[in-house]
Fold these 2 entries.
Entry 1:
Amino acid sequence: MTHDSRLTTYSPPRDGFITHIGRRSLETFRAVADVPTWSPLLVGQMRRLGVDSVPIALFIAVFTGIVLSLLSSYIFTGAVPLYFVGALVGKTVMMELGPVLTGMALAGRVGASIAAELGTMKVTEQVDALETLAYDRNAYLVVPRVLAATLMFPVVTAFAMAVGVTSGWITAVNLLDLSTPEFFKGLRMFYQFKDIWFGLVKSASFGAAVALMGCLQGLDSKSGAQGVGQSTTRAVVLGCEAILVLDAFWALVLL
Amino acid sequence: MIELDGLTKSFGAQRVLDGLSLDVPDGRNTVVIGYSGSGKSVTLKCIVGLIEPDGGRVLVDGGVVGEMSREELAELRGRIGYVFQFAALFDSMTVAENIALGLARRGHDRSTIARRIEESLAVVELPGTGDRYPAELSGGMRKRVGIARAIALKPRYILYDEPTSGLDPVTSAVMDQLMVRTRDLGVTGLVVTHDMRSAFRVGDRIAMLYEGRIRQVGTRAEIQASDDPVVRQFIEGRPGQMAAAAPRRAPG
């Protein structure tokens, strides 16, 4: 009987970092089969990790749209027709800044929240208690959070995309010498459906990575408030790094 | 019956358990005494598979814990209740939800769960507290809820980790009564503690864990009459050779 095939056993990190992450990810993947445990918790996590994150994502999207609009106007003036502002705002918000900035914001909010919660549960033996009640810690704690983030990051990102483009349009109409038809002419000119799904696929992978880092760091917390604090910090840093790595990965694979 | 056979466990360079062997007979309370950090909690966690020993075997009803499949380990945990040192209640859940969680896992219907919650809270003399959150309870009440959560599952065994630590003498006596009452209901108890008053009140058999192995095991009377200097020093609480007797500190 190998260690990994056991239901749950206390297993402090003793492998290399990548091996440890890989092993724990595999354990999480196996726990997906325990549907009766995680399914009742999924909707609550989707609300908590997704719906409650909408305000911060929209706040960022509004200002991203404004800045992009002004910046592209500044770059294009005298060289490129101004209706290209619509193209740049649309492409950039949908393909890059919408998913990445939303992911970064949620890495802070969601990743930190998950790591702090699970870390506190770990150091107060609540995770052990869960296991003595015959629950699989991965099925109960990790799977619903990772699935919820994977499903909800694209939804939040979709709202952020819409709001980012809208704020760019309003900025262009009110602060630049650009009409609504001109803005949308530029927006449509280079638009492809791939722009949207590319951004949404990326954001789903960001959600999975951020939630997984939060869960793994939380469950690896050392004793005490300092240990939980360190785990929380690591979760946010690793979540942000994972987003940048995945961003490059998807650009290489899908573009 | 729980059998511990030559358990060894190290954390880094520290050898916490060093060939611990102990039988926990059915229907009685066995108390393991020992210094703080001597590996008592580690021993309990080895029994339910929360910690994997480096060597030796844990047998519960003849089954070797380290060789169990996921399903077998889950089934084993259904037979063992665990009362944590600091209760380890789920702080985002009410008392009733804490107790219901294990029952729901075992597939009980709502009416059975509600009945078991009432029954177990009545046993620990906390009726009507089901809607309260752990943060609203005192330390002693939280520990009693921990016992209620364990006995609601009608386990064959209950493992108690320092059940009276940090409690006032009266609340400690209440906890002791609960452990005796639970034994009288037919549940086998394994209690780890360094509270000698509690050990003598609760224990049918008492074992002293020292330097990673059992130093002496016997009935209450045998331990009280022990002429082993280490045991005597511990039960009498004399400082004396404390440095020599100092435990190798274990996590948990």
Entry 2:
Amino acid sequence: MLKGIAVSDGIGIGKAYILMDEKLDINDEKITDISCEIDRFLLAVEECKKQINELYIRTIDAFGEEKAKIFKAHSMIASDEALLAEVKNKIKNDKCNAVFALNQVSNQFVDMFAKMDNEYMKERAADIKDVSSRLLRILLGVKSQDLSILPPNTVIVADDLTPSDTAQLNKENVVGIVTRLGGRTSHTAIMSRTMEIPAVVGANEIFVYVSDDDNIIIDGFTGKIIVNPDEVIIKEYEDGKIKQAHEKEELKKLVGLSSITKDGYHVVLASNIGNVQDAKASLKHDTEAVGLLRSEFLYMDRTRLPSEDEQFKAYKDVLQAMGDKPVIIRTLDIGGDKELPYLDMPKEMNPFLGYRAIRICLDRTDIFKTQLRALIRASAFGKLQIMFPMISSIEELREAKKLYLECKQEIVDQQIVISDYIQIGMMVEIPSVAIMADVFAKEVDFFSIGTNDLIQYTTAVDRMNAKITHLYNHFHPAILRLVNMVIKAGHENGIWIGMCGEAAGEPLLIPLLMGMGLDEFSMSATSTLKARKIIRSLSKEELEESVEKVLQMATAKEVEAYLEGIAKNLQATGL
Amino acid sequence: MKTQTVTITNETGLHARPASLFVEEALKFKAEIFVDNGTQKMSAKSILNILCMAISKGQEITISADGEDEEQALTSLVAIIKSDLDE
């Protein structure tokens, strides 16, 4: 069976279109009129820059500034002094034709960059190739394959797609993309997700099996590729596709509706995000808040700590993107499985029980205060809620709050405008906190239950250990009892309670959590509308009885079976 | 011709964005500008050349400028190197 890496959801059924680099006719024919050949080359360079600029503008319009940046880099390469000078020299000294000269020079650069032991440089090799092949085609008068005029229901099959390819691709007619190369973070993968075209990459043997105009099915969920399928299979996939499209349409109807139960109980459906792009994407799924912004993204993949201004700008961007919707930003949560090489932290025997998250921040107050100051300054641009991770004792919470107040005072003294809305909350992810929730609730504005760690710490199950995954279970009755305790204690003290662990988006658990009275459910944005659909079919008061029953159960299996029963009932009654 | 020697202090060296900033600045001047890292001497106006030199933190480079605006060119390029290129 032909398989690759699924990188963009959806099923594509259509005709294969093989995108191949045509063989360009590059020969060593000598020229006589040197200045004429150089002029010809420089004219081609001008045309090339013009084309790149068109792609730049088209990409800004379609996908925004960030995605268009690549063409700025292309333009710089096309006008690069060294590249142009070397080509001109070759024409002059060796009497080479421009095509031959350019091909040699650009290959030298590509080789040099591709050999470097650095991802960034290797990517630049691809850029040089993209630019030089554009230049060569202009010089040779070869038209490039025009991806903007493909027939409907086309599945593009290629080695890999370049930025030039994706920028001009017609989204309406392309129903799928398969590439031989690439991985989850390759250009093709990222752009196919942005364009919402189903895609499979890294399908090594694709060209062995596929030729132009073959019927082809690609499954962007599993990575399966089926070439010339029989009618039964086509029917099966088409039905599946219709069902999915139907579900998607049905869910779209829920955009703009409130997340309210049949008996009038409101909840907030929020998103877990990592950066401002995610924030914007989440709005398309009608998210009502950000329930967790992992601030780690600012600290990772770099060589030193981000400055206050840099953080300020990033937080401000997210707050502005969300407008009047509240945004929970969690302060730095590293350690455990997330390391920052530049902090040079020693290896630990038990990293999940070690020096991590708030424990690092309370020790390295310089790092913590920089972040707090950036957050407080950004508060003026939206509705900010600050959340501390990994609190295990009340002293830590008080210390963190004390530092927060110090920073706030400093900023006020500098006469910088800040919001008077800012809420302070904490993660509940350690059993000691869940047990003492009533005490903590008196000193914060909200709780957010982090089920992933809460399960791991309560049941003593390492969630990274493949041998014991069967023991890691969010239906575990002990976890559900703890969650119920935390919600109760919070409500008795007048604060709201959210959940940002994976359990919050689990369809089977939503009714139960609703019955317990959870106020905010934070999940991946794509699950929001599905959750809304479930919520709108529930009656909170009826579910309170179910909660009582579940809390008396002894095993995760019983719980799961019972919750499946509830889900089936809901479906039977027209959901 | 004017020359000045500076030490690269930013973490990433003259790579990626810092390299683009440096070359973009060099392109603003009429003078011929070169970067010499002791083993190679390359035009400061070529992003491909500058990237190829793979200049990293702690390395010393000599910038030379020759032309009517050589003084200004040198001052602003040295200023760029000394400013915090990582920001």
